[in-house]
Please model this.
Amino acid sequence: MKQCCRDYLMEQFGDEDVIAEIYAEYAKSIQEKIPELEAALSSENWGDLDKLAHAVKGNALATGDNAMADLAISLRVAAKMSEKENSETLFGKMKELAKEI
Amino acid sequence: MAEQNGKTKVLVIDDERLIRLMLNAKLKLIGYTAVCVASIPEAVVLLNDGGCRQFKAIITDIMMGDMDGFVFRDIVRGMDESMPIFFMTALDPEEGSGFLKRIMDDSYSFYLPKSIKPDLLLKRVKSIVDSRRVEELVKEKDKEVMAALTLGAHLQRKMLPPRIRITDTDFYSCSWMPKDIVSGDLFEVVPLPDGAKLYILGDIQGHGTSASLSMMAVQSFLKQLPDTENFASATPASIANLIQRFFADNLGTLTYMATLICIHRPEERTVDWISCGAPDLFVVDLVNPELEPVNPEKRGSMPIGLMQDTVYTENEVVRTSLSEDALCIAFTDGVLDVYRDEDGHVPVPDSFLPDMLNEMIPEAARLDTVVISPYKFRLACEVFGYNYFADDMTALIFGARFRKTDVLIKSVPMDADAIDETAQQIESWCSEQGWDPESVTKVELVFEEKMMNVYDHGYDVHDRAGEQACFRLRKNGNYAELTIWDWGTPEPSISVAAGSSEVELELRNRDFSSRGRGRLMLRKICVGIERNRFDILNETIYRITMNGGDAQQGDQK
Model:
């Protein structure tokens, strides 16, 4: 479990079992969204990309993964501007960060 | 329902399982029970099935699939105007202010950050849920207060004399209209020797609950007046002094009452009256319609109870001579507290009441509807451009007996025997008028049917004692016109679209007939039935074709 998430979730819930369950769900949600983001990006479906990045942002913020949340916010902006190159760069970083989860 | 096993239930809607999981954990930590769903349609099904009240609050995401949280809010508001809805979202700088503005468009919508800690979530949700609980308690209390006030008004009404009384020598009619359910106005009528009547019209200072409590005390006292020493030789001034003593002994300086006390002697054609801070008596003389000041010397005194040591003297009493057709009209000053509208507050000019009465009363006398004039005063004020009433209002009209022989006007107590007896009197009167027997039977039948209908359905069985109705019967052109006035619950009117078939009409009549408020038989006998309502007064006019008559003719009002 990422340390930043552990600290954040412990402060919120103070229970190992609860935070383990929440973190597992967070990891699962990110793993599920990565291929969906990839598909939206490759098809240049900017609306879907924005929605998916919004979901990642919400989940990351709720779990205390601020780095992932920041990336998701930037990706949303890029999606709204239909910036393919920038979106690909940000998504690449997101994939790398997801491996740490 | 909203508190299951002592726990407050909160509905959570978010399409992300992680968020639902976290909210469930957070709400559990603070002692709430979360019912989580992943979509708005699921939430709507839940609310439709169990009702909004099963939840104390709703927490929802804003952006979810095709439907956003604000659309969901509109759906909820259709079910519950004040259900607290918390919008939980991670605001982007770009969307943030727009979302916040839309959240704040609704008084019961609130923002929650997605990263909110459980202790803050507890504070936020609890404070809103608690304040709503208080609001509901206040509403509940409001209902209780309203029920208590309604009962109070009912008791007040029961303490007043009958609304109308018509005897062989005189008549009176009084409307008593509280501004706010209960009233500080009172009215009493007491018979005196030689056919004289004592009328007392009082207006306790202010209105609402406190004035109504004083009214009840004073009204109770007035009921005991006939037991006082030398009551038979009482004068308006001596009555004022008795009431003044009651105020001094029992109400102290708590309140005072503008009062008009009249002793009407129909045989002598006089009325002696004293105004204790109340509007003067009006007299409309139908023989000599020019209204002249009845109190040129401006006699009168202060309201009763205003000063502890006031003594009312005979010098303050006015004696007014009346013609045979003169009508006396008295108001509490609530009649003068009318304005053109709520904002304008244009006071009533001095000429308002004389002008209104001069126009209204002779016309009512012509149509033989004087007995219900007090119930038309409010309407008349509105016709004259004054439509905002700021105080309780009581209007009284009294006079000598009706002299026309071709019109029968009577009051009828809400009592089956009295109704039967009156029907027999109607039969005799119609026969004396030379009406053909078949028409007489029809009139009698319509009268009995209508009156028993009012008796059975217009009043609660425990509540009709002391209530009454009143009627006017006359020949109008080629038909008999029977007008019945009652104060029971209004009859539902049958609205029939133009071109309705006979079958439709028949079915609707049968429907009303089975409910007892629209007798089919009356519709068969009458060529026309007209219903009106003036304040709390129901007016039903039946037109019955007389033998040899043509239903198209007649001098309708």
Summary: Helices of chain A lie at 3-13, 16-42, 46-63, 66-80, 84-99.
